[in-house]
Amino acid sequence: MSKLFIKNAQSISASRYSKVYLDGKKIGKVYSGESAVFEIEKGSHTLYVMSFLMRSPKIKVDLSEDKVIHIKESAFHFLIVPITILLMIIEKLIIRPLGFEYMIYGLMVFGLVSLYVIIFERSKFFIIEEVKSGEL
User: Fold this and answer.
1) Is pTM beyond 0.85 here?
2) What does the alpha-carbon distance between residue 95 and residue 36 come to, in Å, rounded to a whole number?
3) Do residues 105 and 51 both lie within one domain?
4) Would the pLDDT of 14 be above 60?
5) 35 lies in the same domain as 51
6) Residues 61 and 18 reside in one and the same domain
7) Cβ contacts of residue 21 below 8 Å, gap of 6+?
8) Tens digits of per-residue pLDDT, 52-98?
9) Contact assessment for residue 135 and residue 74, using Cβ atoms and an 8 Å cutoff
10) Contact in structure between 71 and 7 (CB atoms under 8 Å)
């Protein structure tokens, strides 16, 4: 058996924890800003993390020895949705009452980008990296 150490960076999203999947099976949770250790069979495995609808890309890890994995959020994917919501609120409260109807088209672009991120880019929301032994 090998040990898999996973460190979840402090999250700025609403997610309190990330679920850890190894070879398609959930092996546990890692709370935001905390670490977890999992006992895993030696060999090559596929690892990814998921939180609500967002997840990381799948990576191959060779667990012939103990490994340390860091989980981080992709800043671009995290910020696009709140920025879009903020712009929609500004449009409803400020722009539309002042008669700037053409601004709605700019907001529609942000809305479509957010929708694209949620549908097609959700597997890139988290970044998972294997830490080399010299970087600890």
Assistant:
1) no
2) 47
3) no
4) no
5) yes
6) yes
7) 27, 47, 48, 49, 50
8) 777 888 989 888 888 888 887 766 556 666 777 777 777 777 766 77
9) no
10) yes
